[in-house]
């Protein structure tokens, strides 16, 4: 039992240790990319992921607005029984 607990502690310590690998600070490169004046809106400078997220959001907004208009028209002009 104790052996299993010690093994788990060793794995956890190794997994969550900050000395395992050194990561390069990429903030200056990202700041440079986002601050350059290339005519592209800031919300699309992140790449393909940002573009897909933006288009999905706009598509859902248009579909939702269309559905709201459809429901309002349907409620304003009820069917005659």
TrEMBL record:
CDD domains per the UniProt record, alphabetical: Cyt_c_Oxidase_VIIa
Part of which pathway?
Answer: Energy metabolism; oxidative phosphorylation
Q: What is its main location?
A: mitochondrion
What GO terms are given for molecular function?
A: oxidoreductase activity
Domain of life according to the entry: Eukaryota
Spell out the Pfam families in the cross-references. Answer: COX7a
Q: What InterPro entries is this protein classified in? A: COX7a, Cyt_c_oxidase_su7a_sf, Cytc_oxidase_su7a_met
Topology relative to the lipid bilayer, per the entry, is: Single-pass membrane protein
Per UniProt, subcellular location reads as: Mitochondrion inner membrane
Q: What GO biological process terms are annotated to this protein in UniProt?
A: mitochondrial electron transport, cytochrome c to oxygen; mitochondrial respirasome assembly; regulation of oxidative phosphorylation
What's in the keyword line of the UniProt record? Answer: Acetylation, Membrane, Mitochondrion, Mitochondrion inner membrane, Oxidoreductase, Transit peptide, Transmembrane, Transmembrane helix
> Which GO terms of the cellular component aspect does the record hold?
mitochondrial inner membrane; respiratory chain complex IV
PANTHER family in the cross-refs: CYTOCHROME C OXIDASE POLYPEPTIDE 7A (PTHR10510), CYTOCHROME C OXIDASE SUBUNIT 7A2, MITOCHONDRIAL (PTHR10510:SF15)
Give the family this protein belongs to, as stated in its UniProt record: Belongs to the cytochrome c oxidase VIIa family.
Protein name, per record: Cytochrome c oxidase subunit 7A2, mitochondrial
The organism named in the record is Pogonophryne albipinna
């Amino acid at each position: 039992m104790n052996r299993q607990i010690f093994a788990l502690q060793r794995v956890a310590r190794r997994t969550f240790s900050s000395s395992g690998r050194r990561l390069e600070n990429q903030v200056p490169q990202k700041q440079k990319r986002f601050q350059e004046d290339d005519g592209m809106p800031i919300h699309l400078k992140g790449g393909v992921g940002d573009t897909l997220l933006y288009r999905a959001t706009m598509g859902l907004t248009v579909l939702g607005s269309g559905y709201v208009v459809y429901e309002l028209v349907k409620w304003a002009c009820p069917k005659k029984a």
